[in-house]
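Anyone else keep sequences and structure tokens together like this?

Example one:
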Amino acid sequence: MWKLLLFVVVIFVSPVFTQDRQKEYLTTLNGWAFIKVPVEGAMTNHNLGVTCAAERMRRVCYSPDRWGNYWTWGCIEYNPGFDSTLHAIAYNMCRSHHCTALDYTFVYRSNYRPDDSAYGNDAAAVALYGGDYHDKYALCAVVDANLHIMTCD
């Protein structure tokens, strides 16, 4: 009986432990290095902020500067020439608004949904509601000069 129980537990639990989700450097724009960082739990604005802070990085808002919609204090500011941070990075990396490197990557967007959902996208859709997703990626940023002390093992 115990062998069967152990076998069942290993089958159902092992996928959780075999996911190899690591930080990933994406690109540098206007002095900011953008890093894709795994998040545990729901993709909410709060969880994104906690994740970036734990990595000693800054959170990234949907709008790249304080004059855009959906920017909030505590987010980085830069001027990439786009109204959306994810579009700016996608274009920089892939020369298109759709870039598979950004699949299931979320940014802070205040007042997006009542459930504190962050904003995300993937190659097939934009405007993913963070509250509907778990264990995906936050887009965090660090000043480019600090890249030499950061590791993305």
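And example two:
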Amino acid sequence: AISACEKGGIWHLALGLLAAMKMLRLRPDEFNYSACISACGRAGFWELALELLSEMSRRSALPNLISYNSAITACERSGHWGLALSLLHASVLAKLRPNTVSYSAGITACKQQGHWQISAMILAAMCTQNLKPPTISYIGVLSACEHGGEWRAPLALLTRMRTTHLQ
């Protein structure tokens, strides 16, 4: 039910169901929390999303990659690129393996602020982890270069895209 609320954009009902579970002494799991984190992030309540991520550990529901990705995306959407990158790093420290969703959200967060060097490093980290960056990740780095006034780096990036058979 919480997941349906998340998908429907009914964040307040998702939180109400999570609260009801706690009141009934049911233990919400990482999937319940992740859905609430995502719902809050989609509604622009990044602080609440981070509070839920923090609460998970206190309630013995270990955050999984979906939990972190939802929180990273919440921060990215709200323009908090530093927090998004901190969460990306925290997911690694939690011994989770970030995926293309994780890295792409980090790139997008940097893109919005014109931090092209950091977005390029995130793209490189994605490749180091043997993940094939989606085209949108390359576009994010190119856009970050544009926002940051950098014109040399995109030339090298376009060459790399061509050699990896992206179109």
